[in-house]
Every structure is written in structure tokens, then in C-alpha cells.
């Protein structure tokens, strides 16, 4: 059966054996997933010819999956970004370079230090922005007799974590004589740059890169080498790369978008015609309380509501009217022949928070065949 969501793609989503799937069900369309991987390389070449795919470190919070991680590794991705509780999933997947992009408090520092100690063949990198972070890391390093590779976390406008350029240099000076620390570079995540207006995104990228450049220059003026800089989410990675490509610096450039591999309707509206929405939810009509509405067997226990209501339906003109934990009430466009038990394909508004609500996803092949019914989301609930 073909499911068309014209607002997302001219190409229909195909599922050939609907009765073999228990709804609601999270689906990953393999052809869209593969397209996104190839598309990433092409987009990088358009902005910065020759930019290596290995310098994209995808954030795994979007998919939380060993299967996806290994597919990305096969495609040439080498480093990955994660939150603390996703580290073990990456270790089990065979990843050798893991960046824990999260300020570690004492218990988390202890946990990650134990992973560093137990996996000497892995390079597990952490971040710090303030003296307290360095203290927690130092204490954990002493306990486990390890050395940290660490990014200094720079605030480039998101105002969530990080320090300013002067503070970055101060933290470097604080740790430079401590044998438990090895400076790895500057991390400058710009997750605030998700504006719908392209000009505004470019201006915000320029402003973020200017703050990053100021920090790098402070280091260079004191003959301190900055080996790497890392920045970017999915909406900002292309304008960030364009800005960074015009900056004269010796640091290796690493970008860390995550959402792009599954994509969603929110980012499709921000950066249309970049990636395909690859992860969607198959649902069924469970009731028709009146001629104008239908109730789906899907509630916000199964779709992330943090960025607003779901809005991509395989029935054109359908709209979410109300929702609860187990149900979503939708409008039924006039003239639509819709019955209890009918299937509808729904695109999530936010892939990252939606995927975290599922135990597994089914992989759908290019002709609609079910390649795998239960591919685990190994690091969910974390």
C-alpha cells in the first residue's frame, strides 16, 4: 500500500504487508535512511568541497540504536556524540571515538571514568566549562587512574551551557599542568540556531563563529594550539561550515548534527529539500465518534509533543485536534472515506523525542517489504 504525504515528499511511502505490523508502530524506511546518508556527503561537497565525512560526528540522541550506528560506521562516520547514558550503546556498537556532550556532575563523571578505565581501546572525550566541572573530572580521574581527553565548552549564544572566550582560556590554564587532562579542542554547540528564516540562520551562524574565532585567537595569541573545533546542529551545520571555511585557523573542523538521519516535519519546515523524513509512525483508526473526526490508536506516550502537535498525515488535510496519553483525535476532511481499522502514516514533529518513546522500530525495504520487525532502540529512556 502506498502512503502519500505530499507536504514532505512527492514519492509515496510503501508498505506491502500491513497486517504483519501491530500498530502503532515506529517504522524506518530504508531507502529514505540511505538517501539521507548519501545526501549528507553531497551537501558537504556543495559548501566545502572535499570536507571529509569522518568529520561529521552525528549525535546519537536521535536514533539511540546500535543498528543505525553501525550503518553510519559502514558509511564512513567514525566519531559520535552522545549523552552520558548512551555511551555504552556506542561502545557495544564498536565505536572508537565517543564525545560525551554533557557537563558531568560527580556521579556521571564517576560512571564515564569507569568506562574509560574499562575500555582502553576507546577514546572517550568529555567536556568542561567551569572550575567545578574540572574538579569533578579530576576527582574521578584520580579514583580510576585515567587521563581525560576534554573539550572546553564555549557558549556561542544558546546560553545553556559553556563559558565565554576569556573563561575558556582560563579553564585551559587551570588544567594545563594537571596530568589528568589532555586538551582536545573547543566545543561550540549552537542549538539556538533553528530559525525558519534562512537569512537569520546565516546571521546567527556568523555571530556564533565569531565568538568561536575569538576564543581560538586568544589561544593562538599565547602560542596554544587548538587541535579541533566542534559545532552545529542539523539546522545550522551548512551555514556554520560555510562560515568556518572562510576562517584561517589550523584547528580541525568537526560538525555534530543528529536529527538529519531520521529528520522530521519540524526541521523539514526549517530546511526543506535537504533530507527525507525516514522514521514515521503507522497507526490505525480506532473509532469514529462523529462524521467529522476520527480517533487514532496513538497518544503522546508515542509521539514527542515538545515541539508541538503532529501534523504530517497520509490523508491530506487531516489535522490533530486533541490528544491524550493513548489517543489522538483528528479531523476527517470532507469526502474522505475512512473506516475503523484503516491505516494512516504519521510523520513526527520531533524525531529525537519521539524515538525515545519506542522500544524498537521496524525496517521497511524500498519495495515496502518488512526487512526487520523489531530493531531495538538500545539506549531509549536515557
Structure description:
- The protein folds into 2 domains: 2-29 and 268-376, Lyase, Ornithine Decarboxylase, Chain A, domain 1; 31-262, TIM Barrel, CATH 3.20.20.
- Helix content is 30%, strand content 23%.
- It has helices at 30-47, 66-74, 87-93, 106-118, 131-144, 165-175, 198-220, 237-244, 265-270, 351-355; strands at 2-3, 13-14, 25-29, 79-82, 97-100, 123-128, 148-153, 181-187, 228-231, 252-255, 279-290, 293-296, 312-313, 320-323, 328-331, 343-347, 360-364, 370-376.
- Strands 3, 11, 12, 13, 14, 15, 16, 17 and 18 form a 9-stranded mixed beta sheet that branches. Strands 4-5-6-7-8-9-10 form a 7-stranded parallel beta sheet, covered by helices on one side.
- α7 (198-220) links the parallel β8 and β9 (228-231).
- It is elongated, with a radius of gyration of 22 Å.
Amino acid at each position: 500500500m502506498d502512503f502519500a504525504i505530499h507536504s514532505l515528499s512527492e514519492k509515496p511511502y510503501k508498505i506491502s504487508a500491513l497486517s504483519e505490523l501491530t500498530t502503532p508502530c515506529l517504522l524506518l524506511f530504508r531507502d529514505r535512511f540511505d538517501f539521507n546518508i548519501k545526501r549528507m556527503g553531497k551537501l558537504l561537497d556543495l559548501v566545502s568541497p572535499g570536507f571529509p565525512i569522518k568529520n561529521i560526528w552525528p549525535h546519537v540522541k536521535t536514533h539511540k540504536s546500535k543498528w543505525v550506528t553501525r550503518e553510519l560506521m559502514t558509511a564512513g562516520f567514525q566519531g559520535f556524540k552522545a549523552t552520558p547514558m548512551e555511551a555504552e550503546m556506542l561502545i557495544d556498537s564498536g565505536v572508537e571515538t565517543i564525545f560525551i556532550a554533557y557537563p558531568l556532575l560527580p556521579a556521571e563523571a564517576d560512571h564515564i571514568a569507569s568506562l574509560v578505565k574499562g575500555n582502553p581501546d576507546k577514546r572517550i572525550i568529555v567536556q568542561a566549562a567551569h572550575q567545578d566541572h574540572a574538579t569533578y573530572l579530576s576527582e574521578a580521574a584520580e579514583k580510576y587512574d585515567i587521563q581525560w581527553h576534554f573539550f572546553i565548552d564555549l557558549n556561542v549564544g544558546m546560553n545553556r551551557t559553556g563559558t565565554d572566550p576569556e573563561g575558556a582560556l582560563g579553564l585551559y590554564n587551570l588544567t594545563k599542568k594537571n596530568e589528568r587532562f589532555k586538551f582536545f579542542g573547543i566545543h561550540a554547540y549552537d542549538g539556538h540556531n533553528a530559525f525558519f528564516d534562512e537569512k537569520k540562520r546565516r546571521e546567527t551562524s556568523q555571530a556564533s563563529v565569531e565568538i568561536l574565532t575569538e576564543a581560538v585567537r586568544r589561544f593562538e595569541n599565547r602560542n596554544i594550539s587548538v587541535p579541533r573545533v566542534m559545532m552545529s546542529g542539523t539546522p545550522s551545520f551548512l551555514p556554520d561550515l560555510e562560515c568556518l571555511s572562510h576562517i584561517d585557523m589550523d584547528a580541525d573542523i568537526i560538525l555534530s548534527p543528529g536529527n538529519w538521519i531520521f529528520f522530521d516535519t519540524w526541521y523539514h519546515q526549517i530546511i526543506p529539500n535537504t533530507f527525507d523524513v525516514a522514521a514515521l509512525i503507522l497507526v490505525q483508526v480506532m473509532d469514529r465518534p462523529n462524521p467529522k473526526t476520527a480517533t487514532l490508536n496513538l497518544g503522546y506516550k508515542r509521539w514527542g509533543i515538545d515541539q508541538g502537535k503532529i501534523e504530517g498525515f497520509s490523508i491530506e488535510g487531516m489535522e490533530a485536534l486533541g490528544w491524550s496519553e493513548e489517543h489522538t483525535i483528528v479531523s476527517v476532511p470532507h469526502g474522505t472515506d475512512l473506516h475503523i481499522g484503516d491505516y494512516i502514516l504519521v510523520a513526527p514533529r520531533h524525531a529525537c523525542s519521539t524515538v525515545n518513546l519506542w522500544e524498537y522500530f521496524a525496517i521497511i525495504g524500498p519495495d515496502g517489504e518488512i526487512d526487520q520487525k523489531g530493531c531495538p532502540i538500545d539506549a531509549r529512556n536515557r
